[in-house]
């Protein structure tokens, strides 16, 4: 018999390079440095990255790291400037259900599974912010849903204990912000006082990091007539407001300082025309200013880093548009004609780039917002279910919350 030596028998167990994890690590490290792998993966669509989680543990961990998520979103946003993706909210003409669709020009519309219960009469869309879209019901925003369409996950925000005061508050205005220092998505709800009321607005903020609402200090008196903020630029929400002064009431812009959690007043432009629209244009706050007429021209104003307004350019004349819906981050003007056909118009040449029709939607029911996909998720998010199952769950949870509230039980109820 040959002697039993170390070299005369095979070692049991996993040898070096035998596991899939080691092979993947060795292959990626041998041919591509980690920085190169990071750079390549951060340029891929979310759909592909979710499939690549199965390649190896290193890739799976990388995709969920905050620095990778931030780098991926920056690249996703920069690519959007050459061709925007759109989230379109509407009401179905026959069923009257809320419909959420994704449009990637020049592809066709794709209907998405909606996380918002269709039995609520109205749905407003705020955002997106860092890839998260906020859906809520007016006039008080009791049901707020945060949704990542690319990741197909959502969370219904915990119900707030605050209630509007009859005769003082007219509506609640909802905005969304993002604190990049804390990696925290914030929801703002402002109980707006009636015009000429001397009482400051009640302002509260929900943090996805803590999962709690808290009241913010506010001594400023200003009036908001909109259910949602007018624009969000680099995680900062902006509003058109009316503010009293010694000459009466004048229109100004307000910005929410995310770091200080306070509202700031911005300088106004001066005399304006019939319509104004705040937009995020190439990561800057811009205002569209125009009159509603057959051959209207749109003046585009931009706010610089020192809070000064200047004319960026003028677009037009635009002919054949029944209504201007806004402006995308890449500068395309969004408008529709009297037949309900939506146009994307190049602001430089005034030519039509894309057009599509929402045949099954109610006239005037659709809302169109820019969308940059993101990997960002936060605690408590769940996969979006089919509409019937989602509505059944929402009805059950909301009914239970209402019963507990009426019975005087603790109202810290989380609706998943």
Automatic annotation (TrEMBL):
Q: Where is this region: Disordered?
A: 1-22
**SUPFAM superfamilies linked:** F-box domain
In which residue ranges is the amino acid composition biased (Basic residues)?
A: 1-17
Pfam assignment, any one: F-box
Give the F-box domain ranges: 26-76
The cross-references to InterPro entries, in alphabetical order and at most eight, read: F-box-assoc_dom_typ1 (IPR006527), F-box-assoc_interact_dom (IPR017451), F-box-like_dom_sf (IPR036047), F-box_dom (IPR001810), SCF_F-box_component (IPR050796)
Q: Which intervals of the chain form a coiled coil? A: none
Q: Write the protein's name.
A: F-box domain-containing protein
> What organism is the protein native to?
Capsicum annuum
């Amino acid at each position: 018999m040959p002697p039993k030596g170390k070299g005369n028998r095979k070692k049991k167990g996993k040898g070096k390079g035998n596991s899939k994890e080691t092979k993947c690590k060795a292959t990626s490290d041998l041919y591509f440095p980690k920085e190169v792998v990071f750079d390549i993966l951060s340029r891929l669509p979310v759909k592909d990255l979710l499939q690549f989680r199965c390649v190896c543990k290193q890739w799976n961990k990388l995709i969920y790291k905050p620095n990778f998520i931030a780098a991926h979103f920056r690249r996703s946003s920069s690519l959007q400037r050459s061709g925007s993706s759109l989230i379109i909210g509407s009401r179905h003409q026959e069923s009257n259900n809320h419909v959420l669709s994704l449009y990637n020009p020049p592809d066709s519309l794709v209907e998405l599974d909606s996380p918002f219960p269709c039995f609520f009469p109205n749905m407003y869309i705020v955002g997106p912010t860092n890839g998260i879209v906020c859906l809520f019901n007016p006039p008080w925003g009791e049901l707020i849903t945060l949704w990542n369409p690319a990741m197909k996950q959502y969370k219904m925000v915990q119900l707030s204990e605050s209630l509007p005061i009859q005769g003082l508050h007219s509506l609640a205005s909802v905005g969304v912000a993002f604190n990049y220092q804390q990696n925290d998505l914030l929801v703002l709800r402002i109980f707006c006082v009636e015009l000429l009321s001397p009482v400051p607005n009640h302002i509260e903020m929900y943090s996805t990091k803590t999962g709690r609402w808290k009241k913010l200090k506010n001594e400023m008196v200003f009036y908001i007539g909109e259910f949602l903020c007018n624009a969000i630029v680099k995680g900062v929400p902006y509003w058109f407001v009316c503010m009293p002064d010694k000459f009466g009431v004048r229109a100004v812009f307000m910005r929410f300082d995310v770091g200080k959690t306070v509202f700031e007043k911005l300088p106004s432009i001066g005399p304006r025309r019939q319509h104004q629209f705040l937009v995020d244009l190439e990561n800057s706050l811009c205002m569209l200013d125009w009159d509603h007429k057959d051959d209207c021209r749109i003046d585009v104003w931009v706010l610089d880093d020192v809070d000064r307004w200047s004319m960026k350019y003028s677009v037009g004349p635009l002919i054949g548009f029944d209504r201007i819906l806004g402006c995308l981050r890449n500068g395309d003007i969004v408008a529709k004609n009297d037949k309900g056909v939506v146009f994307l118009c190049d602001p430089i040449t005034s030519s039509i780039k894309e057009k599509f029709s929402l045949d099954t939607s109610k006239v005037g029911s659709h809302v169109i917002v820019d969308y940059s996909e993101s990997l960002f998720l936060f605690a408590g998010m769940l996969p979006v279910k089919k509409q019937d199952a989602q509505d059944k769950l929402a009805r059950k949870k909301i009914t239970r919350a209402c019963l507990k509230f009426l019975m005087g039980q603790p109202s810290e109820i989380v609706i998943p």
